[in-house]
Amino acid sequence: MLLLAMVLLAGVRPVHATDNPAILPVSDVQPGMKGIAYTIFEGDKVEKIDLEVIGVLHNAVGPKLDVILVRLLGDKVQQTGVVAGMSGSPVYIDGKLVGALALKLGTFTREAIGGVTPIADMLEIEEGPASSAPAITSASSRVPVPEEFAQRTSAGSGQFLVPIETPLIAAGLFPETLARFGKDFSAWGMTAMAGGTAAPSPDDAKLRPGDMVGIDLVRGDLSISSGCTVTTVVGDRILACGHPIFGFGAVKMPLSRAHVLMTLASAASSTKIISTGGTIGTLTQDRQTAVMGTLGAGPPMIPVDVTLDTPAEKKEYHFEVIESAQLTPTLVATAAYNGIVGSPAYGEGFTLQMDGAITLKGHTPVKLEDLFAPTDQQTPAAFFVATEVMADFARIYSNPYELPKIERIDLRIKSLAERRGATIDNAWIERSSVRPGETVAVKVLLRPYRGAPFVQEVPVTIPAQTARGTLQLVISDAAYLNRNVQSLAATSQGQLPGLEELIQLINRERHNDRLYAVLLQSTPTMLVEDKEMPNVPMSAISVLDQRQNPGNARLLLQSTAGEWSVAMHQVIAGQHMLTITVK
Asked: What is the pLDDT of residues 325-366, one digit of tens each?
């Protein structure tokens, strides 16, 4: 980064945004100074915007992080104001680089008032800690404008500077998908809208200050990218945005060339409509005052294949998503949901059968298996499929043991043209007094959706070693058992040996297309790492209590004497409790 600063300082005649400029320190910036910003309103034509300095807001963003308040001038900005995607537009005064346009003055203002991040703060991007400081990433992060400066604008007092929105451009994203997942991205200060992709060009990597650059999150049959403006280019390094995109610190995200299709003027929030071209490098830093990237090859991404098999047709979708513990689970869910609802043969009344896997290098694949029936609520079954995939992926990717190497995600969805679901209405046994080794028939009354109730029998054999006394027999769906009986959540709170054991626990979770019967007895169970030790003797518990650090052990008040299930080929919901006396 020192080399980048030295090259910038060496410039002596910065007339155009393409030159290596000298730097004007913020201490030399005075109210009334005239300057120029460079940005794109349409196509790839970099245009200049006249501006005037209103003043400097010291320590506005944080300790020793100033903001230069400026007024943009000219006919175009009078119509558009400060535009989403303008973040990073380089600002020059007297031919010297001052910084990057990064903030704007609220909404519905009569003037185009912006905030400039000083270039000196942007140049320190690589000197920050490994973990990023709290970043200005959403409209809720506001910088108050002092009264003395507010009086110099037509906006009046009580105004705030907020980060300029980053356009989130999606191609192949259905409106329904955007409605479901758009709020997840807006929380990061991104304005979601339709965009497009452009064919790669040999000139894509020939960036100059004022050009647009894209940060690709998803590529393939669905593409999602964010975009901002390049502040400076030195060799194969670029600085852009003037504020963070996500604030994740050190990152590896693909950079692409972005092209402005048009600038959409709006009284509330104008934005650039962009398309993204070929990969031109890797975003390596995403910090408080800027983002930085290296031109060249892009980073590896995770392949995602989604197959939707309906009675009418079979559709296959192929994507690639970035590797990010914070974003990848949401991106995978978005891609999966989009692939399901995108088929014309998909209908809301269908039951969805999921069969898939998350493949990891050096580990057992994570199984993705379940059945999802539509409900009377407005949430479609496809959303439950997507969020379950997201939850399983998040467990793996955010594990505390090691950084997983995800090789691919395969998701196969079969659409069954009917609503397959039943609720547990009642359960009983012919006799409640049994002996160890005996088999009893548990009868369960199930009520299907708009169908006649029916009785399903579950044979339960009392284990020969079962302790005598009163036991509880739980007739339930998978969700109840996963939450309450030796659940993954309860077990994995203890320290596991590693990621492989966590995967084994996930793969042992029960499926919602089966009817379960679990026999519980009032003797404690010890959970040690990923192992269950039922009927623990009191002597072992006493030894555990005497240890200062019980380590990986966890104690539950009940033990499972036995578990049985029946495949139902429909989603089961509900639970019922029975009491059995073992003689």
From this structure: 888 888 989 988 988 887 766 666 789 999 999 999 999 999
Annotation: CATH topology of 2-163: Thrombin, subunit H (2.40.10)
Please compute the mean of the pLDDT values over residues 146-154 and round it to a whole number. Answer: 59
Residue 338 tokens, joined: 């989009």
Classify residue 131 by burial, with Cβ atoms within 10 Å: 0-12, 13-18, 19+: exposed
Measured in degrees and rounded to the nearest 5, phi and psi for residue 30 equal -125, 150
CB–CB of 66/289 below 8 Å?
A: no
Q: Who contacts 516 (Cβ-Cβ below 8 Å, separation ≥6)?
A: 474, 475, 476, 477, 478, 481, 510, 563, 564, 565
Cβ atoms within 10 Å of 35's Cβ, excluding its own: 24
**pLDDT tops 90 at residue 321:** yes
Query: What's the chain's Rg over C-alpha atoms?
Result: 30
- Per DSSP, 138 falls in state S
pTM for the full predicted model? 0.80
- How many beta carbons lie within 10 A of that of residue 119, not counting itself? 27
Give ranges for CATH 2.40.10.10 in the chain. 2-163
Which residues partner with 334 through β-bridges? none
